[in-house]
């Protein structure tokens, strides 16, 4: 009996009335069948690739046509989160092209222009289909108003400064031409903010730049670092020097605070002294919090 390896299949071929027997190896038949299946699979795979490429080309052509069309034209621009910038200032900063669409508009470039303004801490520009561009602004807030000597006749300019030490803007005098184009929110915030006074002569402020004066920065760090109710009673900070920084409370008490160090311990010490000596304190010195001193009325 032949082994499976030598097993043959037999085909019958008719030729001119004669019958011929052709013998084929089973292994060869299987190999030929696999080859046929492989060729058929390759053809199907190639057909699928061509079909996918056709779809991609069609989509790209459609996108190009849509991109260059007037579809999704920007009909409105909405602005969120803005209080210190006027509508005119925002329109100038954004400078959205009149003939652009939501597909063609460069949102990154618009955001970059808006962030150049000192009031803007962060901004997101979003497409809201079918025809709205949304500008979401996170503004800086006024941490303090710094009185800077102008060097002429003892006059001072009031500058709004943010908690991250960025100079926001000089606050125009009420009734001036510049005041007419300044947001009312600027004056509201300035009226409620602490004033930093006695700043050394020569202190320089510039819109959008970070403050480099150590005395002003020390005063800001004290204001930002206070966590108790004492902060609500501070109305003025004298920044003649870092170690000489002095707070003035709304009840007239003067506090020699010094450097922006051990702020919480200094606050607790001040509050304890005020509690133990109600209405009888005029001056407290906590520059060295371990050995505070105070003076009565």
Word description of this protein:
With 297 residues, the protein is α/β, with parallel strands linked by helices. The protein is built from 7 helices and 14 strands. The protein folds into 3 domains: 31-68; 76-139, Ubiquitin-like (UB roll), CATH 3.10.20.310; 144-296, Rossmann fold (3-Layer(aba) Sandwich). Strands 8-7-6-9-10-11-12-13-14 form a 9-stranded mixed beta sheet, sandwiched between helices. Strand 4 and strand 5 form a beta hairpin. The longest helix is centred in the first third of the chain and has 42 residues, at 26-67. The radius of gyration is 40 Å and the shape is elongated.
Q: How many domains in all?
A: 3
The helical percent reads 25-40%
Helix count?
Answer: 7
- Unreliable parts: 1-12
Strand order of the largest sheet: 8-7-6-9-10-11-12-13-14
Strands, count? 14
What profile does the largest beta sheet have? 9 strands, mixed
Radius of gyration over alpha carbons? 40 Å
Q: What is the level 1 CATH name of the largest domain?
A: Alpha Beta
CATH topology of the largest domain: Rossmann fold
Per CATH, the architecture of the largest domain is 3-Layer(aba) Sandwich
Structural class by sheet pairing and helices: alpha/beta
Distance between the termini: 128 Å
């Amino acid at each position: 009996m032949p082994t499976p390896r030598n097993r043959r299949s037999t085909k019958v071929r008719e030729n001119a009335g004669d019958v011929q027997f052709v013998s084929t190896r089973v292994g060869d038949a299987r190999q030929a069948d696999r080859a046929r299946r492989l060729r058929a699979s390759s053809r199907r795979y190639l057909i699928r690739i061509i079909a996918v490429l056709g779809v991609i080309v069609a989509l790209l052509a459609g996108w190009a046509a849509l991109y260059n069309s007037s579809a999704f034209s920007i009909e409105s621009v909405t602005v969120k989160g803005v209080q210190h910038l006027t509508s005119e200032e925002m329109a100038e900063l954004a400078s959205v092209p009149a003939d652009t669409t939501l597909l063609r508009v460069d949102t990154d470039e618009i955001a970059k222009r808006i962030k150049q303004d000192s009031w803007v801490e962060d901004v997101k520009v979003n497409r809201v289909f079918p025809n709205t561009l949304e500008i979401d602004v996170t503004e800086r807030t006024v941490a303090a108003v710094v009185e800077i000597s102008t060097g002429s006749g003892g006059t001072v300019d009031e500058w709004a400064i943010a908690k991250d030490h960025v100079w926001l803007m000089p606050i125009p005098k009420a009734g001036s031409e510049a005041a007419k184009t300044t947001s009312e929110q600027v004056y509201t915030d300035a009226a409620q903010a602490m004033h930093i006074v006695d700043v050394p002569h020569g202190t320089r402020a510039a819109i959008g730049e970070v403050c480099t004066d150590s005395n002003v920065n020390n005063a800001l760090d004290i204001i930002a670092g206070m966590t108790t109710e004492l902060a609500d009673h501070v109305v003025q900070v004298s920044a003649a020097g870092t170690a000489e920084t002095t707070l003035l409370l709304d009840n007239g008490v003067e506090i020699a605070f010094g450097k922006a160090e051990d702020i919480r311990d200094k606050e607790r010490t001040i509050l304890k002294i005020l509690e133990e000596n109600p209405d009888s304190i005029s001056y407290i010195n906590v520059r060295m919090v371990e050995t505070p001193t105070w003076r009565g009325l």
